[in-house]
Amino acid sequence: MNQNLHRLISAACDNRATEAELTQLAQLLRDDSLNRDEYLRYVDLHAALADEALPATAFDLVDYRSAVATHGSRRRTARALMGNRSRKTLLLVAAALVIAVVGVFQWNSIGRDLAALPGPIAVASEPSLATMLFSEDCRWPGQEISEGQRLNPGRIDLESGTAVLRFDGGAELILVGPAAIDLQTPGRVLVHRGDIVVRATDGAEGFVVTTPTSRVVDLGTEFAVKVDSTGETEVHVLEGEVSYRGLHVADELSRILRAGEGVAIDENGHPRSVPMNSLRFQDFVNQINPRSRVDLLTVYEGFNYSPGRLPLSHSTVGRGWAGPWRHLLSTGTSRAGDDATAGELTIVHREIQVPWPVPGGRLGMLKLPDGASTYIREMTRPIDLDARTATFFSVMIAAEPIAATGLDGTKPPATRNAERLSLTIASSDDPADTSIAFGYTKNFIPFIQLANGSKFDSPLTMPPTRTSLWIGKIVSRPGGDDEVSLRVYGESDSLDYAEPATWHVDSRNVRLSGTLDRIVLHSEGPNAKIIDELRLGPTWRSVAPISVETALENQE
Amino acid sequence: MWLTQYRIPPYDEVERTPGDWKLIPVQKNPFKYLNAGQRILEKMVGNNVQSKAGSADFLVMTVTDNDSNDHEHFMRHFLECQRELLRYVMCFVPNAHDARDIVQNTAVALWKKHADYDSSEPFLPWACRFALNETRMLLRTNQRWKHFLDDETISILTGRRQELTEDLDERRIYLRDCLNALPEKHKVIVEGYYFNDLAVETLANSSGRNIDAIYKSLQRIRSILLECVQRRQQSAWEAGR
Predict the structure, then answer these.
(1) Smallest Cβ distance to B225: which of A7, A45, A364?
(2) How would residue A83 be classed by pLDDT, with cut points 50, 70 and 90?
(3) Low-confidence stretches of chain B (pLDDT beneath 70)
(4) A201 and A166 in contact (C-beta within 8 Å)?
(5) Can you state the angle between helices A33-50 and B211-240, rounded to 10 degrees?
(6) Maximum CA pair distance of chain A?
(7) What's the angle, vertex CA A10, arms to CA A5 and CA A11, rounded to 5?
(8) What is the largest CA-CA distance in chain B?
(9) What is the per-residue burial (b if ≥16 Cβ within 10 Å, else e) of B164-202?
(10) Running DSSP on this structure, what letter comes out for residue A68?
(11) In Å, what is the CA distance from A471 to each residue of A115, A118, A178, A396, A468?
(12) A12/B148 Cβ within 8 A
């Protein structure tokens, strides 16, 4: 039965089936659900081969059921991994489309756009006062600003698009182009023109917005300010209240504007009431529809291998790697030269629960055995700490649950003191002197350690769940004042569309130098640990497993 | 199609015809005109345009568009999901050549209707509906394929395909490993036929075998791969238990 079915499907795949054979195959599919399953598996295998869609990363996998939830997030990487033939197909289809219906389509600009990866981030070495959290379709004339970038005092022009900034004072600001603003202090912005929405709560109260005609002071609230080309200013209060006054009017004459009210202030500083008309901050973010940007990932390892023991020399799948994983023979250090490709990785499937919208946990994970083990792998795209860059990483870690140990103050069992896990991004030339390690050590306290010996511990212990998601950020600039941060999410913690306001470990004003081109995974202790979904990318959205719906739900 | 904030002010670019209210799709433009959830409705009365904000879900009108923004957005969406469309179409028309033609026709159909696309919805399911229509059209009109699937079987396969999603994804992981495990003589055929796009005739000539033998080998190789994938999946499940 199967043989006949295979013969018929095979003929259909190769375009050799006669009309009679197609009729017979159709009949078999109508009659029997087992035939249908076999058919679907057969043609999907054939389709995978025909489109060279063998997954190099988990994002290559197509998941129609989750397409709604992950639209736009998991798809783009496939493009970069296509073989020649797929590219050809793509171009043919695109070309046909262009010729057929568009005519004057600007193919070159798209090609460039699609191929472009974000370049280094431009920040000066003076003290920064805000972070670019999110930008969508933004054009910045005269400068390049990308997500995750730290911003210095000074003017920002936005020609088009929408951006979200967070001031170090805590206020968040949505900027809609065309707009021009001056970042003045961590608590003050000057709006030359354009539309902004400010959310200044939880300690960020007192944020000041000045415009060519007026001065608005937040009193713990959310409000919108719109400045037109003449300088006329509208203020709309969405929640709480603000005080406002004409720019040249004495402070005592400030007036209060409450939620639901709007006011327009003309160039002479004279106010008049206008109907409140602005979206809430969150509605605005929802409307921007923040999406995951895994297409920007520079490094990805999902350990998507068959379960069992995988020879290290076969660990070649993933993205952005210069070779397979290697075993470090002398544990605890990462000196060059004493590693080996002999040995194995232990791959397991379905051993952890993964609450985040990633393929991880389902299609292969690395199990680090008990005792000490260290694995290293080189990246093709090094991180230059002497240049202006921002690099984010994320990794999923499953360790033994730690409930009733560190968190409630009881003394952890002695064996737990020996537990240690770290992910180090290091230089292959000089691993001892150029490296940044993220991990946890005894008592499950997350830490960041720099090669110069500086160690920064988290004030909190690991979340009391088995699986945690680690997201780190490294910001470097030529003149120093670098930053390294780490945040650990438990299974029930929600991920925001942009980087968090607070990190669990935050080391600002450190000095980083050198080139990082290798990842070192080190584990020791009596318990095995599981690692999955290791990602490096230039922005929060490229590494954080957010989906459209997750991002929106979390904002509700 | 959507209008960005910068495309709103030259409002006269909108093609207007007298009579009915028409819905102007607007994205990211809450400041100038809209409250949440609202859309702009317009109609021509004489030479004047009347506008109002509303939430009616009827008629989306076309907009004269002289820049490439829309094309760009459309192409981005399309390129993102092109592979998925091919995989989807091959469920119903397993021959890659015909399936690619269908995807190509789908692209044209999508472009013609892209003004109807609501960008708050995911693009792929929307595009899949078009792809399915194009597939049905081929299955009805093509001399050979019209002997294949009827609408009812298509719909059963679509549903089952959805249920098997996770299974099929997982199988692709094993497929890669199984492919590596193939004997060399089989690898040569797979690479030639699938990866280098060589005609079966060419493969036959270069290996000194006849065409039927190559087709037979392809059938045999696919069955071997299918069994291998099945075996690996089975042991993974057992190991998982």
Answers:
(1) A45
(2) very low
(3) 1-72, 240-241
(4) no
(5) 110
(6) 92
(7) 100
(8) 78
(9) bbeebbbbbbbbbbbbeebeeebeebbebbbbeebebee
(10) H
(11) 26, 20, 33, 9, 10
(12) yes
Q: What is the pLDDT at residue A377?
A: 93
Asked whether the beta carbons of residue A93 and residue B232 sit closer than 8 angstroms, the reply is no
Q: Residue B233: which H helix or E strand, with range? A: helix B211-240
For residue range A384-418, list pLDDT tens digits in order: 988 888 999 999 998 765 544 443 444 445 555 57
Q: What letter would DSSP give residue A387? A: S
| Cα(A218)–Cα(A210) distance, integer angstroms | 11
3-state secondary structure at position A530:
strand
For residue A168, give the amino acid letter.
D
* Residue A40, helix vs strand vs coil: helix
Answer whether the bond into residue A431 is a cis peptide, omega within 30°: no
Which residues of chain B neighbour A26 with C-beta distances below 8 Å? 147-150, 153
Alpha carbons A399 and A528: distance in angstroms, whole number: 7
DSSP class per residue in A217-235: EESSEEEEEEE-TT--EEE
Q: Which pLDDT value is given to residue A217?
A: 87
Angle of helix B165-180 versus helix B151-163 axis, rounded to 10: 80
What region, left, alpha or beta, does residue A303 occupy, with left being phi > 0 and alpha being psi -120 to 50 degrees?
left
How large is the angle between the packed helices A2-13 and A19-31, nearest 10 degrees?
130
User: SS3 helix, strand, coil % of chain A, rounded to 5?
Assistant: 20, 35, 40
**How close is the nearest chain B Cα to the Cα of A81, in Å?**
12
CB A223 within 8 A of CB A198: yes
- Between A and B, how many residue pairs show a Cβ–Cβ distance under 8 A? 279
Contact (Cβ atoms closer than 8 angstroms) between residue A446 and residue A505: yes
Q: Judge whether A186 and A167 are in contact, CB under 8 Å.
A: yes
Stretch A379-385: mean pLDDT, rounded?
92
Rounded to an integer, what distance in angstroms lies between the CA atom of residue A354 and that of residue A364?
A: 12
**Pairwise CA distance, residues A423 & A20, whole Å:** 60
Rounded-to-5 percentages of helix, strand, coil across chain B: 60, 10, 30
A409-436 burial code (b ≥16 CB/10 A, e <16): eeebeeebeebbbbbbbbbbeebeebbb
Give the position of tokens 């929307």.
B126
Q: pLDDT tens-digit profile of A204-245?
A: 788 899 998 888 888 878 999 999 888 888 999 988 888 888
- Looking at chain A, the whole-number percentage of residues with pLDDT higher than 70 is 77
Amino acid symbol at A476: S
What is the pTM assigned to this prediction?
0.62
Non-local (6+) Cβ contacts of A400 within 8 A are A419, A466, A527
Which of A83, A107, A81 minimizes the C-alpha distance to A94?
A: A107
Residue A251: is it exposed, middle or buried by C-beta count within 10 angstroms (0-12/13-18/19+)?
exposed
Of B122, B148, B164, the CB nearest to A22: B148
User: Positive or negative CA dihedral for A7, A13, A14, A15?
Assistant: positive
Cα–Cα distances (Å) from A331 to A328, A421, A525, A532, in that order, read 6, 12, 12, 21
Does the beta-carbon distance from A160 to B6 stay under 8 Å?
yes
Handedness of CA A125, A126, A127, A128 (dihedral sign): negative
Helix axes A33-50, A2-13, angle to 10 degrees: 40
